[in-house]
Amino acid sequence: MPKFLVKIDQERCKGCGLCVEFCPLGLIGLGKSPNTAGHYPARFKDDEGKCKACGICYTVCPEPAIEVSKEETNE
Predict the structure, then answer these.
(1) Among 26, 22, 14, 27, residue whose Cα is nearest residue 62
(2) Owning domain of residue 37
(3) For residue range 21-74, what is the model confidence (pLDDT) as tens digits?
């Protein structure tokens, strides 16, 4: 089964929380440390491989700060 990754550009993210609100699996949350602009950027965490790459986070992001990709595995 493929594993998907959501990469969030920590400097570009303004911490609006739209991706957090709309992730159907709750895999995104706001970080506790500010970026250089003083915003608390979103963080993706999926230790169990639940992400299905639906792309909602990418779609709702008002900044081009999110990239969804497939992780290459050697299985």
Answers:
(1) 14
(2) 3-71
(3) 999 999 999 999 999 999 999 999 998 989 999 999 999 999 999 999 987 665
Task: State the pTM of this model.
Answer: 0.86
Candidates 74, 73, 75; CA nearest to 3 is: 73
Number of Cβ within a 10 Å radius of residue 22: 14
**Are 71 and 5 in contact, with CB atoms under 8 Å apart?**
yes
Provide the number of structural domains found in the chain. Answer: 1
CB 67 within 8 A of CB 7: yes
**CATH number for 15:** 3.30.70.20
